[in-house]
Structures are given as structure tokens and as C-alpha cells.
Write a structure and sequence with these properties.
Family: Belongs to the transcriptional regulatory Rex family.
Order of helices and strands: HEHHEHEHEEHEHEEH
Pfam families: CoA_binding (PF02629), Put_DNA-bind_N (PF06971)
Distance between the termini: 49 Å
Helix content: 40-55%
Radius of gyration: 20 Å
CATH class of the largest domain: Alpha Beta
Strand order of the largest sheet: 5-4-3-6-7-8
Function: Modulates transcription in response to changes in cellular NADH/NAD(+) redox state. Binds to the promoter of the aldehyde-alcohol dehydrogenase adhE gene. Functions as a redox-dependent repressor of adhE expression.
Keywords: Cytoplasm, DNA-binding, NAD, Repressor, Transcription, Transcription regulation
CATH superfamily of the largest domain: NAD(P)-binding Rossmann-like Domain
Number of domains: 2
InterPro entries: CoA-bd, NAD(P)-bd_dom_sf, Rex_bacilli-type, Rex_DNA-bd_C_dom, Rex_streptococcus, Tscrpt_rep_Rex, WH-like_DNA-bd_sf, WH_DNA-bd_sf
Strand content: 15-25%
CATH architecture of the largest domain: 3-Layer(aba) Sandwich
């Protein structure tokens, strides 16, 4: 079966791709060879029609009455999400959130790995290396250090007032993707992708729905 990849998919579908990959990896680990849309939907917490619609953007991933081949779909989503090779990532900002991420072993769960970190030049950890061998440099060295690496992806955990300034430095240094924990909309070139993680907003949404249930 030839698996086609259509990149023009809705954002909501794109945000579920990693969930599908995770589910197929779990099914594969559990020795499940075939899975239907209801099984996949139940595992994620959505409806089966959404699963079928999402999968339709990528061509014929399964056959009616036969379900989806778990191993083939696991490999398909691994390829789609570039999880067949290590993706090196940089971290900017090693405050409380950044510090936690710096010591979180992404590579033990997937193929992403923080390989270099930055903070203000006067940060006490600048010039040191983590136990995992991740060097920490001052922000003034970003352009120099990135020119020596193949890192194109950054995690940004700096104060909101510094987010745009640092994002500009990153994009000027060749970074093409930013995961920002700062609740500020970043102005970046059209060929740069930004994803936002707003923990406060997510918590407030959770509390809203909890109150609504009460």
C-alpha cells in the first residue's frame, strides 16, 4: 500500500497527528495488528467520524471492513512526524520552566533531543554543562553557536517582555521553528513556524469547564 502525504490539512487535524502516532505505538507494543476507527477514536477521546475524516487527507490508509494495519500506520506517522531520525532542539531561557525542560529526557520517549541551551550572559549556569552533556551559553552567543550546528528548532521559555527580541535573534540565526511558552504573539518571517503553549490559559479553561460541570 502506497501512503500519500497531503500537507494541506486542517490545523485541528495536524494537532492530532502526534496523538495518532502515540496510539499506534501503544497498539503495536500491545501486539494489536489491526485497529478500526472506533478503537482509535476511543483511545484518543474523539469520535470515529473524526478519525476517518483525518485519515482521508492522507489517501487510502485502510480498507472498509479490514480496519487499519497498526504497524504500517505507526511507521507512516513516524515518517510524517520525522520521528525516524533524531531532531536536535535548542532551549532558550533556563528559569523554572526552562530548567525543568532542560533536564527532561525527551530522547527517551521520542526522537527529539535538546543539545544546546542559552540564557542571559550573566546567568550563573552559563559556561557550564548539564550532566547529560548539554552546554549552556549566553544569549549573545546564539548566532555564533548556531552557525556551528544543524539546530533549526527552538523552545522559548523567556519572560514575555523579552520573547519578541529573542525570537528575532533566533530567526536571524536560521531557526525555522519555535515552541513558545511566552503568552505573546511573535512576529516572525513567513517561513518560520511558531507553536504556543500557554499553561495559564489551559488551566483557566480547565477550571471553567469544571465549574460548568458543577
Amino acid at each position: 500500500m502506497k501512503l500519500e502525504k497531503n500537507t494541506t490539512i486542517p490545523r485541528a487535524t495536524a494537532k492530532r497527528l502526534s496523538l495518532y502516532y502515540r496510539i499506534f505505538k501503544r497498539f503495536n507494543a500491545e501486539k494489536i495488528e489491526k485497529a478500526n476507527s472506533k478503537q482509535i477514536a476511543d483511545a484518543i477521546g474523539i469520535d470515529s467520524a473524526t478519525v476517518r475524516r483525518d485519515f482521508s487527507y492522507f489517501g487510502e490508509l485502510g480498507r472498509r471492513g479490514f480496519g487499519y494495519d497498526v504497524k504500517k500506520l505507526m511507521n507512516f506517522f513516524a515518517d510524517l512526524l520525522n520521528d525516524n531520525s533524531i531532531t536536535n532542539v535548542m532551549l532558550v531561557g533556563i528559569g523554572n520552566m526552562g530548567h525543568a525542560l532542560l533536564y527532561y529526557r525527551f530522547h527517551e520517549r521520542n526522537k527529539m533531543k535538546i543539545v544546546i541551551a542559552f540564557d542571559t550572559d550573566d546567568h550563573p549556569e552559563v559556561g557550564t554543562t548539564t550532566p547529560d552533556g548539554i552546554p549552556i551559553y549566553g544569549i549573545s552567543q546564539i548566532k555564533e553557536k548556531l552557525s556551528q550546528t544543524d539546530v533549526k528548532t527552538a523552545i522559548l521559555t523567556v519572560p514575555s517582555v523579552k520573547a519578541q527580541e529573542v525570537a528575532t535573534i533566533l530567526t536571524d540565526s536560521g531557526v525555522k521553528g519555535i515552541l513558545s511558552f511566552s503568552p505573546v504573539h511573535l512576529q516572525v518571517p513567513k517561513d518560520v513556524v511558531v507553536q504556543y503553549v500557554d499553561l495559564t490559559s489551559e488551566l483557566q479553561t480547565l477550571l471553567y469547564f469544571m465549574k460548568k460541570e458543577d
